[in-house]
């Protein structure tokens, strides 16, 4: 066995630099000075006797071996965090620090209902929230930046465990007094492909909408420029097209103060599953199940 082993801190510095590709931003994310982070990585390279990072004035480039070490560092850091979680989970249920990523099409509509009650009923829980697109949230989970993720399924999550929270129906939102406004549900065939406004790539809601409509031509012709559901609603309110909204957004009042109306989409797939997911075999699995119970009891 080697007498000298890399420290957790050195590995954290290396992973942060790989993520941010900039010494200054990496140092900020680790709450240390740039010189401290740089020195820590040089110490790691000296310890291992290899070059992990090629440095220049403008570019930070990892060597092939450096990339391999980063991949291993992610796993080691995740194991170290799970060791800490194991000790933490042996105390009071649903207490201590918990980092949760939440997607933007869920966070503003579901969290306001649950967070006040969590603060009241779970005073020992310190919940740190991170709003990210679905893809970024999954990456944060598997790299150990988040302990769990609140998102909408179906979505490619990799190997995870989950607790289902609720089903969320999809609605078509369009300007008031649209002459094609039916009294009940809107079939996908009534959606003008040139008028459909969707969120940018990276948001799972876009894929849910396209799957529910089951019209391949919509993927090519839909305008994918919205950065948030609120932005899409404002675009529809200004007569620029129509969009799709989840029921939870409508129930939360996203259409208040607008001349936009919404009708359910007539499709067998016009539904998304809201779920909490976490890494398999996490020592805090019972905490995550309790947290999911808290979300289910939102009403």
From TrEMBL:
CC per GO annotation: protein-DNA complex
SUPFAM superfamilies linked: Periplasmic binding protein-like II, Winged helix' DNA-binding domain
PANTHER family (alphabetical): TRANSCRIPTIONAL DUAL REGULATOR HCAR-RELATED, TRANSCRIPTIONAL REGULATOR OF OXIDATIVE STRESS OXYR
Coiled-coil blocks: none
Homology family: Belongs to the LysR transcriptional regulatory family.
Source organism (scientific name): Altericroceibacterium endophyticum
Keywords: DNA-binding, Transcription, Transcription regulation
Family annotation (Pfam families): HTH_1, LysR_substrate
GO molecular function, one term: DNA binding
Domain HTH lysR-type as annotated: residue spans: 6-63
Identification of the protein by name: LysR family transcriptional regulator
Protein's UniProt keywords contain Membrane: no
InterPro entries for this protein: LysR_HTH_N, LysR_subst-bd, WH-like_DNA-bd_sf, WH_DNA-bd_sf
């Amino acid at each position: 066995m080697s007498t000298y082993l890399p420290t957790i801190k050195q590995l954290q510095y290396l992973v942060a630099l790989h993520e941010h590709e900039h010494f200054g931003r990496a140092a900020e994310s680790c709450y240390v000075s740039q010189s401290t982070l740089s020195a820590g990585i040089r110490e790691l390279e000296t310890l291992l006797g290899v070059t992990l990072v090629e440095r220049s004035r403008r570019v930070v480039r990892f060597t092939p071996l450096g990339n391999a070490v980063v991949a291993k560092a992610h796993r080691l850091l995740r194991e170290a965090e799970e060791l800490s979680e194991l000790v933490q989970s042996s105390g009071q249920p649903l207490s201590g620090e918990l980092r949760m990523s939440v997607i933007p099409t869920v966070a503003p509509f579901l969290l306001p209902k649950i967070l006040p009650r969590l603060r009241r009923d779970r005073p020992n829980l310190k919940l740190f929230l991170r709003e990210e697109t679905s893809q970024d949230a999954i990456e944060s989970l598997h790299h150990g930046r988040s302990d769990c993720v609140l998102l909408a399924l179906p979505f490619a999550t990799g190997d995870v465990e989950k607790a289902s929270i609720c089903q969320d129906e999809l609605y078509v939102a369009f300007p008031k007094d649209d002459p094609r406004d039916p009294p009940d549900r809107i079939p996908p065939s009534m959606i003008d492909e040139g008028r459909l406004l969707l969120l940018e790539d990276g948001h799972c809601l876009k894929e849910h909408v396209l799957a529910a409509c089951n019209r391949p031509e919509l993927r090519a012709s839909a305008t994918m420029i919205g950065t948030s559901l609120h932005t899409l609603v404002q675009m529809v309110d200004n007569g620029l097209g129509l969009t799709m909204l989840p029921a939870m957004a409508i129930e939360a009042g996203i259409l208040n103060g607008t001349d936009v109306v919404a009708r359910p989409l007539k499709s067998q797939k016009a539904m998304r599953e809201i779920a909490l997911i976490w890494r398999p075999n996490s020592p805090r699995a019972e905490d995550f199940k309790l947290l999911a119970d808290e979300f289910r009891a939102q009403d």
